[in-house]
Amino acid sequence: MHEVSAQVNAGEMVTIVGPNGAGKTTLLKCLLGLETADYGEVIRAPDLRIGYVPQQFKPQASLPLNVESFLTLYGKINPSIAAELNVGKLMKQQLSSLSGGELRRVLLLRALLNAPQLLVLDEPTAGVDVSGQGELYRLLKRLSEQLGFAVLMVSHDLYVVMASTERVICLNHHVCCEGTPQKVGGDASFRALFGDDLANQLALYHHHHTHEHGLGDEDYPHEHHHDHTGHHHG
Fold this sequence. Notes:
With 234 residues, this protein is of the alpha/beta class. The protein has helices spanning 24-32, 67-72, 79-84, 100-112, 130-147, 158-164, 181-185, 188-194, 196-213; strands spanning 4-9, 13-17, 50-53, 118-122, 150-154, 167-171, 175-179, 227-232. It contains 9 helices and 8 strands. Strands 3-4-5-2-6-7 form a 6-stranded mixed beta sheet, with helices on both faces. It has a two-stranded antiparallel sheet with strand order 1-8. α6 packs parallel to α9 and α8 (188-194) packs across α9 (196-213). The radius of gyration is 18 Å and the shape is globular. It starts with a strand and ends with a strand.
């Protein structure tokens, strides 16, 4: 990757999209401090609390650990958030026995235990069936408004993402384009990567969704003005 900059503002939902091998996960890991950039720097707000949901997490069947024990390793469980995520009924189940969707919700709850200001998700719908994808994104939006955190995610589920996100960063080893879903869907570089048909459907899908559900700019208040900023060049 080269000349990549990304910024996430308080209360915002930002999605990084791009083809396989474009550097999306590497960018996230550099922003999180899990990998070091070859050059450039990552700038974070002072004392920024980050919650992270990784793309891959496979519990060992040989390790007897139930959901409650797993979560308490990371912090105190908030019963109301656990209920919101529908995790309460899973507490006594073995971590290794969970379905993909159940595990995704448990990992999301774990990421929220330290009351993050920024929630970072790598392919949040991995292992979640199609019917659960829209539900997950709506839940993320509701929680972000309720708990006051920003969201930065990588995803290939373009239809659902574009209906749920306020700003899109299209990455292919560099930032090809960035902006609202409508703007990105109309960008020539996005069309070159994903095709005209997808770009056209994307713009229509997002337009229909926002009008149908009333998700205009007025529904995204930004009372907080501190930035959660990451700049990466590598």
